[in-house]
Design goal:
It comes from Streptomyces lunaelactis. By secondary structure, this protein is α+β, with helices and mostly antiparallel strands. It has helices at residues 2-20, 25-29, and strands at residues 33-38, 41-46, 53-62, 70-76, 80-81, 84-89, 95-103.
Length: 104
């Protein structure tokens, strides 16, 4: 009885976790989206018309010493399904580097 409950609990946890996992960077790279960046701002424009669920993630780096940039923070945009645009600013003097995350 205890083993059955434990097995059911583990199965429920696994199912819940599966819905929260994001796609690999390779999968996100195949999304029909355009990433752009300029200084402290990064943006994404997705135009697929499909049901992909994606969000913009921006790493904000202090590049005052170009030889040793320092990651200051990572900002996460809202989740979007299908077509959409998003833009995130780190604030000066940080450099923004954007990437996409996709839900499975």
């Amino acid at each position: 009885m205890l083993r059955t409950k434990a097995a059911l609990g583990l199965a429920a946890c696994a199912a819940t976790a599966a819905g929260l996992l994001t796609a690999t960077p390779a999968t996100a790279a195949r999304l029909p989206c355009h990433l752009a960046g300029s200084g402290d701002t990064a943006s994404a424009h997705c135009y697929s018309g499909s049901s992909y669920t994606w969000r913009l993630v921006v790493d904000c780096d202090d590049v005052s010493n170009p030889k040793w940039p320092v990651r200051v923070k990572t900002l996460y945009g809202a989740w979007h399904t299908g077509d959409g645009s998003d833009s995130i600013s780190c604030g000066s003097p940080l450099r923004a580097t954007g990437r996409l995350e996709a839900r499975l």
